Inverse folding.
């Protein structure tokens, strides 16, 4: 909804005085603002609406979310990785237990959402295929919807592997490149020290036609200057419509990666870098911009019917704790004990509606930020828009206008082609 001149000035007045802005039978501009959600009826309590939605999402037992770690082994040794790489691999008894748990927890007409994680999950592609087949059969019986995606370093994701993932109903694969070849290979080498960039880039090109690629670029002070180069390289390969880049932020999540703490970007710096990168993506023709949307919970850690499953059957709430058995909230083979109950209770102690979040305008798109970091640091990790709200809105407006212009140009081009076909013999 774009306004100019008198309508813009009138809207500023309406939004500045919302309680007496419109009559009982609104019309014209007031009607538009109501329809678009900029004005709401006086009897609607937005905070109460968000609170109820948040509570329902946390306690919903019909939908099930699983992050499954088929192995903690990894063929990479990334300098900022927060995991301890262990040679643990899921066995057939854990596979069966996972399927039994899913059958016990998935409701009729619900949804089963699976994230394949690691270690490097593609080291266990056979196990992914077997579990996927079991999940599909379960969803067919329950008339439930199934979706999944995978987080992989991309080294094994060639064309054949991408076909196997497509057959496993993988919606997208997250792959990481941390900059051009010299930068990436220094940050994300193989376990034997060899570089990985060339293989991953070739795999992205081969896989992108089969499985959409979400390209994560983990950034800190040491590689921020290389973002433009890797974006340009992907664009030069003609992949802007199949590869969707975005920035990730390196962070000392656990003691394993504390040596990178001095390189990490501050909140405001990372937020500004995201805006700059968004503009680059648009200018290079990528179709990757995703505007923030309202959410009910920040992540699965806050939902009762959501678990991370480790190779030995441990149930966790956050993948940052993948190597920490002491953080378990349950187990596929062992009875829940007092420590598990205390761990589960800890995830329920944060009430965002009793914190400063309750009065924040960004609450609907943030919902308190990462609960794991809150528990670890005692402070909120807010949405990036909070650091630069005016600039973020300006970029959003610019992109929406550009999308409209591109759509107009596309439609005009189709009309011209139709006219040519009608006129030319």
């Amino acid at each position: 909804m774009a306004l100019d001149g008198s309508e813009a000035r009138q809207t500023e007045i309406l939004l500045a005085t919302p309680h007496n802005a419109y009559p009982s039978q609104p019309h014209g501009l007031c009607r538009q603002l109501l329809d678009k959600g900029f004005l709401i009826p006086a009897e609607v309590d937005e905070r109460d609406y968000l609170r109820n939605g948040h509570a329902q999402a946390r306690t919903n037992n019909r939908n099930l979310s699983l992050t499954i770690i088929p192995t903690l082994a990894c063929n990479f040794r990334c300098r900022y990785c927060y995991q301890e790489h262990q040679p643990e691999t899921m066995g057939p008894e854990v596979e069966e237990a996972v399927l039994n748990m899913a059958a016990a927890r998935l409701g009729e007409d619900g949804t089963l959402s699976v994230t394949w994680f690691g270690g490097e999950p593609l080291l266990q592609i056979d196990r992914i295929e077997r579990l996927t087949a079991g999940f599909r059969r379960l969803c067919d019986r329950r008339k439930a919807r199934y979706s999944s995606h995978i987080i992989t370093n991309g080294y094994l994701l060639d064309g054949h592997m991408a076909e196997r993932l497509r057959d496993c109903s993988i919606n997208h694969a997250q792959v990481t490149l941390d900059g051009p070849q010299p930068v990436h290979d220094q940050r994300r080498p193989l376990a034997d020290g060899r570089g990985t960039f060339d293989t991953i880039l070739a795999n992205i090109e081969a896989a992108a036609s089969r499985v959409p690629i979400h390209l994560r670029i983990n950034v800190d002070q040491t590689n921020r200057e290389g973002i433009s180069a890797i974006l340009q390289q992907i664009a030069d390969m003609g992949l802007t419509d199949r590869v969707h880049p975005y920035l990730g932020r390196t962070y000392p999540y656990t003691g394993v990666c504390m040596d990178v703490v001095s390189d990490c970007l501050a909140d405001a710096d990372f937020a500004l870098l995201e805006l700059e990168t968004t503009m680059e993506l648009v200018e290079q023709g990528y179709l990757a911009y995703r505007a923030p949307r309202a959410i009910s919970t920040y992540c699965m850690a806050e939902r009762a019917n959501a678990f991370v499953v480790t190779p030995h059957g441990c149930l966790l709430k956050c993948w940052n704790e993948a190597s920490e058995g002491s953080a378990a909230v349950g187990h596929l083979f062992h009875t829940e004990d007092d420590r598990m109950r205390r761990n589960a209770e800890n995830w329920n102690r944060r009430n965002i509606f009793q914190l400063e979040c309750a009065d924040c305008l960004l609450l609907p798109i943030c919902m308190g930020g990462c609960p794991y970091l809150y528990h670890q640091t005692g402070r909120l990790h807010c949405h990036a828009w909070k650091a630069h709200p005016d600039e973020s809105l300006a970029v959003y407006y610019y992109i929406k206008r550009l999308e409209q212009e591109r759509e107009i140009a596309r439609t005009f081009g189709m009309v011209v082609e139709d006219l040519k076909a009608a006129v030319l013999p």
